[in-house]
């Protein structure tokens, strides 16, 4: 069975899943305490095992042990993601605290989005951060930014492009 799995035989993946799927699910469920998360982790485990099947070495232990190891890593990833979500909710709660004056009408989703963007923006190098802030908060064109900062227009464009690519990658991983 393990040899067929490593060789990429799809039928062996089905056999492996039928044999150890409940073990993986039970481990994830006990640790996470949530059925949906456990189902997601189980799917991630078998997907990771299938993609990384060439890394399995039968001499180092059985297939069940290898799957349990992958499960431990995926459960740890799920717990870390849960922790990040809790931090974001706490940060959003701070933004949602009632402030004097008229309400902005920002709902929880917009506040979480704002927190995510601000955190990602803070991680940019200062030159890129400055260019992005001038473009989006001061509503300046790249030419106006170059004039205001004294940077060459090509440098402003490079900073903007790198910053937007970094922000896209950063926000894609937190979504």
From TrEMBL:
One of its GO terms (molecular function) is DNA binding. Gene3D superfamilies: 1.10.1740.10, Winged helix-like DNA-binding domain superfamily/Winged helix DNA-binding domain (1.10.10.10). Keywords: DNA-binding, Sigma factor, Transcription, Transcription regulation. Signal peptide: none annotated. Pfam families: Sigma70_r2, Sigma70_r4. CDD domains: Sigma70_r4 (cd06171). Residues 17-85, 120-168 form the RNA polymerase sigma-70 region domain. One of its GO terms (biological process) is DNA-templated transcription initiation. Belongs to the sigma-70 factor family. ECF subfamily. This is Sigma-70 family RNA polymerase sigma factor. It comes from Streptomyces marianii.
